[in-house]
Every structure is written in C-alpha cells, then in structure tokens.
Amino acid sequence: MIVGYAIYSRLDGALGALGAIAMWSGLFTILFGVLYGEIFGLHTIGTVVWGGHPPIVKGLQPAEIAYAQLWLLVSVLVGLVHVTAGYVLGFVKNLQHGFREALLESGSWILLMLGVWAWIFSRASAGAKPEFLFQVFNGEPFALGFAGLPAIVGWAGLVIGLGLGLVLMIAGEVGHMGLVAGLFAGGIESLQVLVNILSYARLAAVLLAKAGMAFVVNLLFFGAYQENGEFHFLIDHGPGYVAGLGPEAELMFPGLIHLGVIGVLFGIVVLVLGHALVLVLGITSAGLQAVRLEYVEFFQKFYDGGGDAYEPFGRERRHTAKE
C-alpha cells in the first residue's frame, strides 16, 4: 500500500493508475491476511486475533484440504460470473446490429456456457463428478446447505445449452464462414465454455503456490513437524521435542535456527531473502494472472481492437507519398 501510494501521489497517467491498483491490492492483501490469520506464513494473527481459529484458511495442510477444494470451486464460480458479464456486454454491443446478431454472436454462448455448467454443478451423473463439488458448501468447510443443483435442473441446462445454445452458435459461424468451416470452427470453439472457466482455477493455484513458498521459507528457518495432517513450526521448541509427541508426529526439518551460530546466520539470510522473493512473486504473479484473465477470458467477449495494422518491416515516408 505504501509503495502504491508513493507512485500514485507522485506520478500521473498510466503509472499513477498502476500505483492506485497497487494500493487496492495491498489493502486486500492486508484484509485477507487478517482473515487467514497469517503474516509471512506464520499464524501469529490467527492466534492473537482469532484465538487460534481464523474464519478461513488457505488449505495448504493435508488436514485442511477441504479449503483448497473450496477455493478451487470459488475460483470457477468467479470465472462464471466474470465471463458471463463479458458475454452480456457483447450482447448489448451487438444489439446495434439487431437482435438476431446479438443472439447468434453472444446470446448463444451464454446459453451454452450456463447450460453446461448448470449440469456440472447438478446432481445429474453425480457419481462421475468429484465429491467436493457437493461438499464444500454443505458442511465441509461451510454448512450453507448447498449439495448441488437438482438433477432435473442439470439435464435441462444441458439440453438448453447443447440443443439451443450450441446450435445457435454454430449457425452464426456458418453464416460467416460457410457450412463446412462453420461446423468445424463451431465445434472446436464450443470448448471455450469449459476452457475459459477452468482457466480461473489459476486464482486458487496462485494462492496455494505462494502459501507453499512462504511455508518452505519458514520450514527452513524454524523447522517444522507434521502431526495428524497439520504442520507446526518449531518456534518454541527444538527438534528433540518431536520425539516425545508419539508415533503420529514426524519431523519434517530441524530448522536452521537450531543448527548453531552458522545455521542461524545462514537462516536469517534465507528468511529475509526468501520472504522478499515470495512478496515480489506474489505481486508479479498475481498481477499478471489477473491481467491475463481480463484480456483473454473477459475482453474477448465484447472488445474489438482498433488502431493501425502492425507492419514489422515498414518505414516512415519522408519524400514520397502513398497513393
């Protein structure tokens, strides 16, 4: 937030806007850091503020895998909302060419995408689907009472999506490209309703990747052990403490801080540089992935680029005129 404010307050234009984005990103980082109860991968805030039980966790530990599945599902739901908004904007834009054009170019995609995903989130053919689709909002980890859409809703969505949405979308392609090319292109492009949404799983991946990197840095410095699927850092105890916990406790790494003066000095370097690297990668990776989702999955649903055609071997005319 401080770096973002420094940029925003001193620069104008695109760089100033970038500073504003950094401020908002920092704010939400702080907010979710408090909700996760973590600071630099340590659960200090969770202990002090939440009494050891923060309202949400990242799902990095084996005992918390339900949360990792939750964030994966939430990422997909965010993708559905975001991409649907893009198609709606495209539909409104295409209305200037008539309702038929809007229906074929954008409305068909909305019907196809929502129909297919309604089937995925329904109890139809539930045995062939991962169980966490019906569990993460039905008790593990949140008891919101959602155990999947009714099977009839799923089958209806699939029929509408494939029977109406796909047909309309292919009809639009045939109108532009001809019968054979339109059928081929429509069949291939229809996979976008799955690919575009699954692309948002990178949100959960970035969350777990950065949490894993911070964990490794702390593991090397403090040391850690695993017990009943939970990780515990050796902040208040040495490696010998693990032996007295019983067979279910397993030492993962003794920690550089417990390996003498050389280990402590080397560990401090690892701790500082490691968390600095995690911070930098967190900014760049999360930022790049967000921009990628905006430009590729969202903008393409309604935005038409303009400007001059790229001419890699062109030259500026000074003494001649182009006729």
Protein described:
With 323 residues, the protein is mainly alpha-helical. It has one domain. It is 63% helix and 4% strand. The protein has twelve helices and three strands; from the N terminus they run H-H-H-H-H-H-H-H-H-H-E-E-H-E-H. The protein has helices at residues 2-10, 13-36, 44-48, 65-94, 99-120, 132-135, 151-177, 179-189, 192-198, 202-222, 240-243, 260-298, and strands spanning 224-227, 230-233, 249-253. Strands 2-1-3 form a three-stranded antiparallel β-sheet. Helix 4 (65-94) packs antiparallel against helix 5 (99-120), helix 4 (65-94) runs antiparallel to helix 10 (202-222) and helix 5 (99-120) packs antiparallel against helix 7 (151-177).
Architecture blueprint of SSEs:
Layout: H1 2-10, H2 13-36, H3 44-48, H4 65-94, H5 99-120, H6 132-135, H7 151-177, H8 179-189, H9 192-198, H10 202-222, E1 224-227, E2 230-233, H11 240-243, E3 249-253, H12 260-298
Antiparallel strand pairs: 1-2, 1-3
Helix pairs in contact: 1-2, 4-5, 4-10, 5-7, 7-8, 10-12
Biggest sheet strand order reads 2-1-3
Number of helices: 12
The portion of residues forming beta strands comes to under 5%
Residues in helix, %: 55-70%
Order of helices and strands: HHHHHHHHHHEEHEH
Total beta-strand segments? 3
Mean pLDDT reading = 90
Give the N-to-C terminal Cα separation: 54 Å
Secondary structure category: mainly alpha
Largest sheet: 3 strands, antiparallel
Report the radius of gyration as a whole number of Å.
Answer: 26 Å
Query: How many structural domains in the coordinates?
Result: 1
Runs in which pLDDT lies below 50 for 5 or more consecutive residues are: none
